[in-house]
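Input/output pair, single chain:
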Amino acid sequence: MKRSIVVGVVLVASACTRQGFRVKDYVTPETLMEASRQEFRKGHFSAARTGFQRVTFEVPTTDPLGGEARYYLAECEYAQGEFIEAARDFRKVADDYENHPLAADALLRAGDAAVAQWNRVELDPTAGEEAVASYQELATRYPSSRAAERAKLQLQALGNRFAEKEYRAGVFYFRLKAYDSAIIYFRAVAADYGESTYAPQALIMLVESYRRIKYQEEITETCAHLRQYYPRAPGLNQACPAADSTAS
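Output:
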């Protein structure tokens, strides 16, 4: 019987300990901020989010602590898959606390949150375009920041996604035998996203489109371009036999 009582006391004490984080237990924004950071590090995003939100309410808008709280609030939203809200709050940090140490990172993460909304290339690319705008703004406002360096890599990856979208559209029209429309898309990939992995594929498909409508001069020009700039493109020799490259 005594053992049961002891076990019961231990379980009650353990349960009280597990209650853990409660916003009302912290009487200053600073102590609440530190406790919220700890919850964030543990991956307790819902609890941390509540704490960060409360800090933003309790400090003046000019207080740097508010900028940090808003940034980590956005990180919690991102972690919970609420990308629209995250993008909004990251942007608020960059706009309202432009001299804050986290401002550049906030612009980077605003772009990341926009990218996360464009999770399939065939969908409306508006969020991807917003991401490009954020990354480019970051490069302009904070050119020497580490965040700006990371944004360059993100822009390259985004360029590849836009190229893929255009390329897929071209293939779609090619399969419908709407070669004039296909040509427009394949040209756009090569012209606008020449450094993407889809550029050589688009040019090869452009050659095939020209071949279907018997545009020999355009075939020759495109094959010459391919051999000059993408000499190792898969399928190049099949798409551009020597006769196509040398014909006048």
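The chain is about 75% helix and 0% strand. The two ends are 102 Å apart (CA to CA).
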